[in-house]
Amino acid sequence: MIYSIEDFGEDFLWGVSTAAYQIEGGAYNNGKGDSIWDKFVRVKGSVKDGSTAEITCNHHEHYNSDIQLIDQLGVSNYRFSIAWSRILPGGIGRTNQEGIDFYNKLIDTCLEHGIRPWVTLYHWDLPQALEDKGGWTNREMLNWFEEFVILCAREFGDRVKDWMILNEPMVFTGAGYFLGYHAPGKRGLNNFIPAVHHATLCQSLGGRILRGELPESNIGTTFSCSHIEPYRELEDDILTAKRFDALLNRLFIEPALGLGYPMDDLPMSQRIENYIEQNDESNMAFDFDFIGLQNYTREVVKHNWLIPYLNGQIVNADKRNVLTTTMNWEVYPQSIYNILKKFGKYENIKKIIVTENGAAFDDQLVDNRIKDNNRILYLQSYINEVLKAKKAGVKVGGYFIWSLLDNFEWAEGYTQRFGIVYTDYKTQQRIIKDSGHWYSRFLSSAKVRYFAQAG
Ligand code: GCO
Q1: Phi and psi for 330 in degrees, rounded to 5?
Q2: Measured from the CB, is residue 125 less than 6 Å from ligand 1?
Q3: How confident is the model at residue 454 (pLDDT cuts 50, 70, 90)?
Q4: 24, 131, 155, 168: which one is catalytic?
Q5: Which of 2, 23, 302, 386 could form a Cys-Cys staple with 59, CB 3.0–4.6 A?
Q6: b (16+ CB within 10 A) / e for 206-242
Q7: Rounded to the nearest whole angstrom, what is the distance from the C-alpha of residue 142 to the centroid of ligand 1?
Q8: Number of H helices, E strands in the chain
Q9: Exposure string over 344-383, b if 16+ CB within 10 A, otherwise e
Q10: What is the number of other CB atoms lying within 10 angstroms of the CB of residue 51?
């Protein structure tokens, strides 16, 4: 099967994504304050290879050539995030002009190259000073977040039109405040539940603030989502799949759409009621201009009554004899189609943009070249599913690859390479992988050959 970029229509947006903490480095430079990730990575055992993101891709210094690289690839949309503690080192109060200047330069450089900047306000790097006061578990977050959003709107809103409020609230609350394997490393329902509610409120609050400050802007927020399937066609597994779907795919989008939390299908979320105050129900909703979906794989789940709250577990891909990436995520292109169809059914979603999709593979640098054919096949097959969803009537308007560069993959450190550009961490050299060349050719409207099976 063959498709070309024209099949997506002229107004379809193509981009690449990154996040501040994963690429910037300069963790202690130019007046930046500590974020929860700066602190978390110093705790022994928290990152697989014992690494930190103190330097990572040193994008903080190389932003200029990195933007040039995006231009060279022919990519016209760039999604990145703002490190809160770079512009407000203590989270609130004193601003750091050097940090603000950095983002001004980054935005200006994008615009000079004709690249549209897409800004994520919060991609997980909460200022540590705020975590010291409870972070997302503290309702004060609403005031802190308001201050941060207003500052971003006023400093950058004259040039940035496209905004995303949060990156994957399910992941930063789940991994950071429930399971503890991401910063700030907190665990348990007593941390998770208030964090969920405050993130939900900040998600819509951020939208309202931007709409007030910048009425012309295009406002979205992003969600991680995976198609979920029962392991066996047994009632217990089917019900487990329903619970996981409510937790992983519905918990944050439904309150934003005015539907409230999916408490019926996710009994553990009923505890949120303890934190709901007057007017919260209506304040959770916001009329977003677009919804950013981030999909990589599907999850297969089975019933397990030993697992607290969820009574179920994910059956890891390596137990299922399927094709995987080095993250041990199944390569399953149809997942993105199913997810787009699923979100496409919500009435109030005006537009969907795939704000992340991509794959980590074991890239080998040989003679200054990375032949990552597996990543090309992965991208081609997922993009084909996006096209199928679009043809089936889903209002999907864009697709961003995760990621521009190999970077610091959170608790996985540098063990995972997601880039379409290779990062040599020793020399900071960037080498465009074959997948980067492929994307570039695709964007320059060459016909691409589609292979049904990635691998
Ligand atoms: C996320 C984040 C990215 C990750 C990417 C690969 O989705 O977790 O947005 O920061 O690096 O998804 O895991």
Answers
A1: -65, 135
A2: no
A3: very low
A4: 168
A5: 23
A6: bbbbbbeebeebbbbbbbbbbbbbbbeeeebbeebbb
A7: 24
A8: 15, 17
A9: beeeebebbbbbbbbbbbebeeeeeebebebbbbbbbbbb
A10: 17
pLDDT of residue 2: 80
CA of 234 to the centre of ligand 1 (A): 32
In the DSSP assignment, the letter for residue 304 is -
Spacing, Cα 227 to ligand 1 middle (Å):
17
Residue 293 Cβ contacting ligand 1 at under 6 Å: no
Q: What is the mean pLDDT of residues 348-362?
A: 98
Binding site membership of 406 for ligand 1 (Cβ less than 6 Å)? no
**What are the pLDDT digits (tens) for 140-198?**
999 999 999 999 999 999 999 999 999 999 999 999 999 999 999 999 999 999 999 99
Q: 3-state class of 130 per DSSP?
A: helix
pLDDT tens digit string along 107-152? Answer: 999 999 999 999 999 999 999 999 999 999 999 999 999 999 999 9
For helices 373-391 and 434-443, angle between their N-to-C axes, nearest 10 degrees: 30
Give yes or no for a contact between 325 and 387, defined as CB atoms under 8 angstroms apart. no
User: What element of type H or E holds 145?
Assistant: helix 141-156
Query: Is 61 part of the annotated catalytic residue set?
Result: no
For the chain, give the number of residues.
455
- Domains, the chain, in order of start with CATH, read 2-229+267-295+318-451 (3.20.20.80)
The secondary structure element, H or E, covering residue 131 is helix 128-131
* Preceding amide of 403 cis, omega within 30: yes
Instruction: Say if residues 134 and 194 touch (Cβ distance below 8 Å).
Output: no
Q: Known catalytic residue: 168?
A: yes
Which atom in ligand 1 lies closest to the alpha carbon of residue 327? 13
Please give the Cα distance from 312 to 306 (Å, whole number): 8
Cα 348 vs. chain centroid, distance in angstroms?
A: 22
Helices 434-443 and 59-73: angle between axes, nearest 10 degrees: 50
Regarding the beta carbon of 168 and ligand 1, being less than 6 Å apart is answered yes
Please choose, from the candidates 328, 268, 267, the residue with its C-alpha nearest in 3D space to the C-alpha of residue 296. Answer: 328
Tokens of residue 281, six digits:
């129900």
- The residue whose CB lies within 8 Å of the most ligand 1 atoms, and thus the one to mutate among 59, 125, 168, is 168
Among 449, 454, 440, 447, residue whose Cα is nearest residue 373: 454
19 lines ligand 1 (CB under 6 A): yes
Is the pTM higher than 0.85? The answer reads: yes
